[in-house]
């Protein structure tokens, strides 16, 4: 009889395991020391990094729970009223446990989640490497202060090795976990690094499991890589020594003026990206006027590219023409009146004022100079 009861219990246990939710998630939370009524939030972040709450739970008797569904494992953040910080988790369908540390939220424990374990291991190993880098920086700072050349050289070599190891760690970890949804979060974070190695990131993305590429995050990464490629191409096209990209656009009178038309008239040509609404541009204009008046007869030409037409600007053309007159801009002016238009993108212009100085063959010889620096550079060519 006991054996029958045992097997009956075992059968019920196995059935219960089989019925564990696979198409929805359950987070069983513990929040020791957290008062009743405190709210716990489960949030995602938008493209600007702002949190968007997706679910809310209320702590009762130091417990709370979340229930819901995700299409695939994704990065979410847990926050709780009265507790500083936020806890990143990879949320996936199934049952998981969350034990809140009400002093330091980042010390909370989130368990029984395959994708999160990959994410957690990555952060743990990265923290260890960062600690070694911080120590190496401290040692180098001390040896530099003591002016110990031999030790300085050794400390600098150690720091360089650690930094190279950190850089390779990101790539190797992504490569070895190319089938984990957590990798999407890690790969996405690499898109924002200063020393981004584009070709490596593309290779890592291409080697991802196809299921990962089909997700919203996977498609976002692909679109970001396409944008980065265009930016890289624009930077190469407008590097010093490169031939400036050709363009043409309407003048205030409605005629079409091409860059080549202006180049043919002078020895040195400035392409000046500006706008009527741009305060720094308008403040720089008197300096450009002074330089133009000083060097125009010696061969200086300027073509202004107006970036008016931003959202909320009531009459872009009127504002553009008025600013030309008020600021006494007597050189060539063109504008599509479409804000940061295709010409700005062609030159990788993301902020203004932005200037490019070309020689008589149309090659870029200098860029993004202002004030006295601009005058001195023009003087080098024309005095």
TrEMBL record:
It is found in: Cell envelope. The keyword Hydrolase does not apply. SUPFAM superfamilies: Thioredoxin-like. Keywords: Cytochrome c-type biogenesis, Disulfide bond, Redox-active center. This is Redoxin domain-containing protein. It comes from Winogradskyella litorisediminis. Its main location: other. PANTHER family: THIOL:DISULFIDE INTERCHANGE PROTEIN DSBE. The keyword Disulfide bond applies. Residues 238-383 form the Thioredoxin domain.
